[in-house]
Specification:
The chain is an alpha/beta fold. The chain contains 7 helices and 10 strands. Helix 1 runs parallel beside helix 5.
Length: 228
């Protein structure tokens, strides 16, 4: 498939993590000679973390795309169990030149059967669920396996977008946009990954996740079972 212009599609859904979407959108919507579509299961308004994204089109109305990007969210595995949504991700991803995701969006790609045998990134807390879908978990912040690009948790979406930008439009374009948007991260604290976080901070956060572990595991197993 080759459109003129190059068609980028963000497949969004209520309850997604907004930065998984808005971070990459800020960069990828500036790809030269491209058009960016934002589509959701029902179209119209999509609520996300206190924000509402208006006027999305319906996924069923999008015939095809060159690049599909799926953001993550706390309810990503709810969406992985939504048969109609997954059917659309399968359809659009199956015809796209590039299949991509950010954070737990990779679990949605996995549920659509688009990551079998592929190395993939995910938020570190849920990366262990990827093998249920036949994917190979990778600790990288941005992971490429052929035409599949996946980003790690949330803020990795910007590094992911720049990597994809360089692939599509060249490093000069990507570097120029990085400068124009002043992307020069210098976080005030170390510890944005479990390997570098202070042990007490990591332990506290893991305690917060415990109530979700069994739920996510059960949902992922149910979604994976549908693939077979």
């Amino acid at each position: 498939m080759s459109h003129s212009p190059f068609r980028i599609l963000f497949a969004v859904y209520p309850g997604m993590t907004q930065l998984d979407f808005t971070g990459p959108h800020q960069f990828l919507s500036r790809v030269p000679d491209s058009e960016t579509l934002v589509a959701s299961p029902s179209g119209g308004a999509v609520p996300s973390e206190g924000l509402v994204f208006a006027d999305t089109c319906r996924l069923t109305d999008v015939t095809e795309c060159d690049l599909l990007c799926v953001p993550g969210g706390r309810n990503a595995l709810d969406m992985a169990l939504d048969a109609e949504f997954i059917s659309e991700i399968q359809r659009l991803g199956g015809g796209a030149r590039y299949v991509t995701s950010v954070c737990t969006g990779s679990l949605i790609l996995g549920a659509a059967g688009l990551l079998k045998g592929k190395r993939a990134a995910c938020h570190w807390a849920w990366r262990h669920l990827l093998p249920l879908f036949g994917a190979i978990p990778d600790e990288g912040r941005v992971v490429r396996d052929g035409s599949v690009f996946t980003g790690g948790g949330v803020t990795a979406g910007i590094d992911f977008a720049l990597t994809v930008l360089a692939e599509i439009a060249g490093e000069e374009v990507a570097s120029t946009l990085q400068l124009g948007l002043e992307y020069d991260p210098a976080p005030p604290f170390t510890g944005g990954r479990p390997e570098t976080a202070p042990p007490e901070i990591l332990a506290r956060y893991q305690d917060r996740l415990k109530p979700l572990l069994a739920q996510y595991d059960a949902q992922a197993r149910k979604a994976a079972a549908r693939l077979s």
